[in-house]
């Protein structure tokens, strides 16, 4: 069932009504001064270049759309050199650059254009200023990657000052677009008539199966080769696991083996690689030595998104000197076509964003006793030697009043944008999440300043989490850990089920990125003093990381080991009311057991029931 959006006209009564009624689709009705839309409006980003201060055109368009009910994205974070380059290319008419720009911010529609104006002394009365302006905009639908509406407006005015004249003429030109043209109606018509396509929109996750395996050749010969032979298809090649094993050589045990070490060539780390290949593959080599090729089961092919393809698994074990950081994998087809992939088994830098919100500004959102303590404990662990450690300047901790929606967006869209492809990124969230009461399919994390009556404006959308992970964070190894929603007497509006858990599980395509959530989709995440002043999930997660999760007793706690321990303990402690979930492929080392291996049966620290 599609959500319904109700539009009122309090801000620009005639102005807005004229624009919205210009091309009103058949699925919208007008009743008692309202337009009711039976489909959700697109998330929209507005970029209008304008000389001078003020940004009159962009502000007027944004205010109009906001009053009409469009969810808007703040363009203020487009500050990197790459994004500035995209803006310039997009303004110059490059639709590919415009599409990339909008997708980088999670927009579904991008409105981009220029507001040009000029001013000179009035020829009749030299004390006044005459100004003229032209505003030209176009709207791109970002799953389609094409323009769906365009418009141009002009203005002319005489005022006492240049600033007043400029503001007036730009506003006139913008008003012509919004009031006197079908521009907004065309956007809404297109949005209603053509179904949204996630598949065409999202860039595959770095390190994912779609990003690597699906790049097989076969698009036809290049320019000038129309009569020549068609090039042989290149095998698809994706790495699922690049794991450094603890070395038997003294002095290198611990997480030092999984981060870039010194440049000594006399010390090496054992490495295991696993992956998949598609197509007619004759051989796979790892560092020039043959890898083992095995069939792939139908169930695993389905899990990897490889149903119906000629796919096989490969694995190999090799030794990686500390003087070398990467391993090269080569797949060759029967015809000689070659695909190459590079793996970085050691983690270079470690980055983390740790968020814990127990103190909510709104009285409608129940506070949580232990969410901030959960976040603090995770931060303390990550910055300890047992976790690598994560350098403190690469770990951002946001608790309670500091965890606003703006701060969370800055953390995911800017801070973590610094991480490179061979770095490790960890994102931890403890707090409430909720569906929008008006639109239950829209899921939000609740920052400190969230308002349940206006989640679209104050919540942190799961869409934005997905956008940051898909578009802003380049690292192939990303671990997302979510202890949400806590059930501390959930009030009306937070929902009866933990839909946020399911939202986290759907963040990634099949990839080397991993998700661990505290509960299943129909469960709450519990917190209580009996778990040491933590949520039950985070309590046992900390136990796992501090040694109890080293189930194979090799001195390293991996993501999979931590999840297996946490899952069993949480189910036991809650009598089956809470069942942690995981998603993703492969594994990542998370902790070293100080003082040697000491798994659950080998002397881990005491645990409370």
Q: Which strands sit side by side, in order, in the main sheet?
A: 18-17-19-23-24-28
Biggest sheet architecture: 6 strands, mixed
Report, as a whole number of angstroms, the end-to-end distance: 44 Å
Global mean pLDDT: 82
Q: What would CATH call the class of the largest domain?
A: Alpha Beta
Helix content: 25-40%
Indicate the proportion of strand residues: 25-35%
Cα gyration radius (Å)? 28 Å
Briefly note the structural class of the backbone. Answer: alpha+beta
Give the CATH topology of the largest domain: Rossmann fold
Domain unit count: 3
What is the number of E strands? 29
Keywords summarizing the entry:
six-stranded mixed beta sheet, Rossmann fold, 16 helices, Immunoglobulin-like, 3 domains, disordered N terminus
Short synopsis of the structure:
With 609 residues, this protein is α+β, with helices and mostly antiparallel strands.
Describe the structure.
Strands 18-17-19-23-24-28 form a six-stranded mixed β-sheet, sandwiched between helices. Strands 5-4-6-7-8 form a five-stranded mixed β-sheet, with helices on both faces. The chain folds into three domains: 5-201, ABC-type transport auxiliary lipoprotein component (Rossmann fold, 3-Layer(aba) Sandwich); 234-246 and 255-343, Immunoglobulin-like (Sandwich); 350-602, Rossmann fold, CATH 3.40.50.1460. Helix content is 26%, strand content 28%. With 609 residues, it is α+β, with helices and mostly antiparallel strands.
């Amino acid at each position: 069932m599609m959500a319904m959006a109700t539009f009122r006209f309090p801000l620009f009564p005639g102005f807005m009504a004229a624009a919205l009624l210009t091309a009103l689709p058949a699925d919208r009705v007008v009743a008692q001064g309202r337009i009711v839309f039976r489909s959700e409006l697109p998330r929209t980003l507005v970029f209008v270049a304008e000389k001078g201060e003020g940004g009159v055109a962009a502000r007027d368009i944004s205010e109009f759309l906001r009053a009409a009910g469009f969810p808007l994205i703040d363009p203020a974070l487009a500050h990197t050199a790459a994004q500035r380059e995209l803006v310039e290319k997009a303004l110059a008419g490059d639709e590919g650059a415009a599409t990339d720009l909008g997708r980088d911010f999670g927009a579904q529609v991008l409105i981009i254009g220029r507001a040009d104006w000029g001013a000179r002394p009035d020829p009749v009365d030299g004390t006044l200023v005459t100004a003229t302006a032209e505003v030209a905009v176009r709207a791109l639908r970002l799953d389609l990657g094409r323009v769906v509406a365009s418009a141009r407006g002009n203005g002319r005015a005489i005022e006492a000052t240049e600033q007043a004249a400029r503001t007036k003429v730009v506003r006139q030109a913008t008003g012509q677009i919004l009031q006197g043209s079908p521009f907004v109606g065309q956007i809404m018509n297109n949005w209603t008539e053509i179904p949204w396509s996630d598949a065409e929109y999202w860039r595959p996750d770095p390190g994912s199966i779609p990003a690597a395996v699906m790049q097989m050749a076969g698009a036809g010969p290049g320019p000038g080769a129309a009569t020549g032979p068609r090039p042989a298809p290149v095998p698809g090649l994706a790495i699922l696991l690049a794991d450094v094993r603890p070395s038997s050589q003294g002095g290198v045990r611990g997480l030092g083996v999984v981060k870039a070490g010194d440049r000594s060539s006399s010390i090496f780390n054992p490495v295991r690689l696993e992956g998949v290949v598609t197509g007619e593959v004759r051989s796979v080599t790892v560092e020039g030595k043959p890898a083992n090729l095995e069939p792939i089961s139908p169930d695993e092919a389905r899990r990897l998104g490889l149903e119906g393809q000629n796919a096989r698994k490969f694995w190999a074990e090799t030794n990686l000197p500390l003087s070398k950081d990467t391993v090269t994998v080569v797949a060759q087809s029967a015809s000689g076509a070659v695909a190459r992939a590079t793996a970085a088994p050691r983690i270079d830098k470690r980055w983390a964003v740790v968020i814990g919100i127990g103190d909510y500004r709104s009285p409608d959102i129940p506070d949580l006793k232990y969410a901030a303590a959960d976040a603090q404990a995770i931060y303390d662990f990550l910055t300890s030697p047992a976790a690598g450690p994560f350098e403190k300047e690469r770990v951002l901790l946001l608790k309670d009043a500091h965890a606003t929606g703006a701060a969370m967006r800055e953390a995911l869209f800017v801070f973590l944008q610094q991480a490179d492809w061979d770095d490790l990124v960890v994102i931890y969230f403890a707090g409430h999440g909720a569906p929008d009461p008006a639109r239950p399919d829209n899921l939000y994390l609740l920052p400190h300043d969230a308002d349940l009556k206006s989640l679209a404006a104050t919540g942190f959308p799961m869409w934005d989490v997905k956008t940051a992970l898909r578009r802003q964070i380049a690292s192939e190894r990303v671990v997302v850990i979510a202890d949400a929603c806590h059930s501390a007497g959930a009030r009306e509006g937070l929902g009866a089920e933990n839909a946020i858990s399911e939202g986290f599980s759907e963040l990634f395509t099949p990839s080397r990125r991993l998700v661990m959530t505290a509960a299943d989709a129909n469960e709450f995440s519990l917190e209580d003093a009996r778990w040491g002043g933590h949520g039950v999930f985070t309590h046992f997660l900390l136990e796992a990381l501090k040694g109890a999760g080293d189930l194979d007793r090799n001195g390293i706690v991996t993501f999979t080991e931590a999840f297996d321990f946490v899952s069993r303990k949480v189910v036991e402690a809650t009598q089956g009311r809470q069942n942690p979930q995981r998603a993703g492929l492969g594994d990542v080392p998370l902790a070293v057991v100080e003082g040697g291996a000491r798994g659950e049966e080998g002397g881990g620290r005491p645990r409370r029931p």
